[in-house]
Amino acid sequence: MSLTFNTTSLKWVAPEGQAIVKISNATQQRFAIKIKTTNVDVYKTTPNIDFINPGFTLNLVVCRGKAPMKEDKLAINYIECEMTDTDAAEIFKRPGVKPNVYMITMKCEETPPAPGAP
């Protein structure tokens, strides 16, 4: 079992905005996460490095600054870690670490979706 994510894509109808990705840990294992994006000048995330303890859900806030509308990617890197680990960033620097990666597509739409559209 692993982490679960509430979405595979984020969409904005304006050139700027905010969205939330819910990352749930229904396992008995603690995970470290590290967030990366293809456009660091446009997208900011809170948190960008953190832990998710067993049984918890993390709300990852993704903020898009004003910029030309194009498709980008958000990569959520995650790896199992020990409850005694205190620095999530250090876990990703360990030799031979190969984290899992969950990709989210981020798009801007020129027009808002019709009422009732997904």
TrEMBL record:
It comes from the Eukaryota. SUPFAM superfamilies: PapD-like. InterPro entries: Ig-like_fold (IPR013783), MSP_dom (IPR000535), PapD-like_sf (IPR008962), Sperm-specific_class_P (IPR051774). Residues 1-118 form the MSP domain. PROSITE patterns: MSP. It holds the Pfam family Motile_Sperm. Transmembrane segments: none annotated. This is MSP domain-containing protein. It comes from Caenorhabditis briggsae.
